[in-house]
Amino acid sequence: MLTVSGLSKSYGSQALFEDVSFLVGPGERVGLVGRNGHGKTTLFRILLEEEAADGGSVTVPAGYRIGHLAQRLEFHRSTVLEEAVSALPRREDGADETYRAKTVLAGLGFGEPELYRPPGELSGGFQVRLNLARVLLSAPNLLLLDEPTNYLDIVSIRWLRRFLCGWKGELMLITHDRDFMDSVTTHTMAIHRGRIRKLPGGTEKLYGQFLQEETIHEQTRINDERRRKEAEAFITRFRAQATKAKAVQSRIKALARHERLEKLKEVRDLDFAFTEAPFTGRWMLEGRDLAFGYEPGRPLIEGLSLSVERGDRIAVVGPNGRGKTTLLRLIAGELAPVSGTVKPALNAKVGHFGQTNVDRLNPALTVEEEVRQANPALSRTQVRSLCGAMMFGGEAAEKRISVLSGGERSRVLLARILAAPVNLLLLDEPTNHLDQESVDAFLGAVSGFGGAVIIVTHVERVLSALATKLVVFDGGKVDLFHGGYADFLDRVGWQAEAGEDPSRADRAPQANRRDLRRQRADLVARRAKELGRVRGAIERVEREILSLEERLAADEAAIIEASRRNDGAAIRDASQAASSARARIETLYEELGALGNELHEKERAFGSEAAE
Asked: How far is CA 596 from CA 142, 199, 219, 425, in A?
């Protein structure tokens, strides 16, 4: 359990959070959300004692261990497997748990040959995966993960989601992938306007709470300002009249007592649309029998044909290192195929957001200068407008590229693409450095784009929202799938998820078939009874939560309406009802979390019994 009390942190005049307190209770998995630059990573650094807070305290029980995904890459064993095994806690009975290390490494995308390679020979991305495997295997009491999916491919992310859902300790998670967070966590905590708020449930519930509260705040502020102006007008009009002196003094005192509500500062979002170049035909690009490899005899791509139609949304998916980025570079003309052809239409105008393109930004230029270079025909007002859409308003547009973070550089590259009209977008992991709100804005912009889009992404929410076709790298080959991502999972699926856990074979006990059938039958009967009881309780709690949330929405709507009417009694009654419903909902979510943990433990227990 972790307790934070009165924590404050500022950088110069910028206060990230002030006098905040929260608790991470036993077994809680907490998703930490907030805009980029609002202090999420800083909070992690404070919890890890890598950075000092300005005030407040962090308290954990004696012997409580906090684990995190370290960015510093240091390895001390001769092979990947030995490095992973070294992170396992020692068992009192001395049992060999190498199979656990193999299972985690396989889930994170390490093939059998890689297990016996020296860690120093791995790519940077796989070295980070090895660090992730180590922290997962070390079983800390509290696990801190800051954007862990940035280093993983889609298959490994799906495995990590399942692994974290079974995490027995506490977890705090930062990720731009809202669906990943909501599927893993039991609570959501936000850094918002310098405060920290934590609620049971997912991100949608928490942001809905903020929206309701800020709507009420703004309506109340407007009503208060109207009443204040009326009182001030009364005071000015009748101040000199002796017969009104008592009434005037009463209003002066009322104004002095009544705290003035401040207008909430606007929280800026990305707000943009791609500029479309005209395209009159149907087919924008054709790739025929493409083959490419960086080494002779080891093709990444072989025999791929792809036709791109106006309006297409094509997602390129698969494990890392198999050729996804290479395919986009072939289509963009940055690489030449070993065989086959890529033929864009004459009036195709390509906008390419690539992983290497961010590194090509000139560090000596300002944001404004970089955007202007993409389209010198734009006026300064137009360039500044594009900078503002990417959240580089005012003096921020004059920052040099050299001082920008990775996320800010990604936004500059997006601004360059916006500066020139395009009708074919090539996007390679464009959401990696965006926060959750910016990912939503990005999805809206791509959905409204009339041209074609080819996107490489590991975010399943983006795939589900956009993709109408897939280029799938899996099983050592590349295929074109006509359909969305959900269709692919239903009809084809990932090869890595098709087989059973190979470690089970090493642990399977010997039993004769008759005894095995009898044991299995008994297990099925007990499993149905026990799990049925817990699932029934979960359904009852969920039904009550849904009913209360509908009532809460009605109460909050009543508060807003009463605020418009300036009806104090109605505001009080509706607020009490809403507060009561909200408290009951929080209690029910705690019950739901406990029931969910009970169900998970029983499922794991029955699963382990079935595997033995």
From this structure: 19, 17, 39, 43
**Residue 457: closest CA among 325, 577, 560, 568:** 325
Task: Tell me the pTM.
Answer: 0.68
β-bridge mates for residue 4, sequence order: 22, 58
pLDDT-flagged residues of the chain (< 70) = 71, 217, 248, 255, 258-259, 261, 263-272, 356-357, 499-528, 597, 599-612
Q: Please say whether the beta carbons of 342 and 287 come within 8 A.
A: yes
The two tokens of residue 110 are 């390490």
Nearest to 177 by CA among 390, 457, 472: 457
Report the C-alpha gap between 406 and 402 in whole angstroms. Answer: 10
Backbone angles phi, psi at 286, to 5 degrees: -135, 125
Measured CA to CA, the distance from residue 150 to residue 494 in angstroms comes to 20
Query: What ranges in 142-262 are assigned the alpha helix state H?
Result: 154-165, 178-184, 203-238, 245-257
358: phi then psi, degrees, rounded to nearest 5: -60, -35
For 331, the token pair is 């289509």
Are 152 and 458 within 8 A, CB to CB?
yes
**Distance separating the N- and C-terminal Cα atoms of the chain:** 33
Query: What is the distance between the alpha carbons of residues 112 and 521, in angstroms, rounded to a whole number?
Result: 36
Q: Could you tell me how far CA 182 lies from the centroid of its own chain?
A: 9
Give residue-wise pLDDT tens across range 302-345.
999 999 999 999 999 998 888 999 999 999 999 999 999 999 99
All residues at 6 or more sequence positions from 505 whose CB lies less than 8 Å from its CB, including other chains:
none
Enclosing H/E stretch for 576: helix 568-611
Token pair 């202090």 is found at 39
- Report pLDDT digits (tens) over 299-309: 899 999 999 99
Which H helix or E strand runs over 146?
strand 142-146
The dihedrals phi and psi of 51, each to the nearest 5 degrees, come to -145, 145
Number of H helices, E strands in the chain: 18, 18
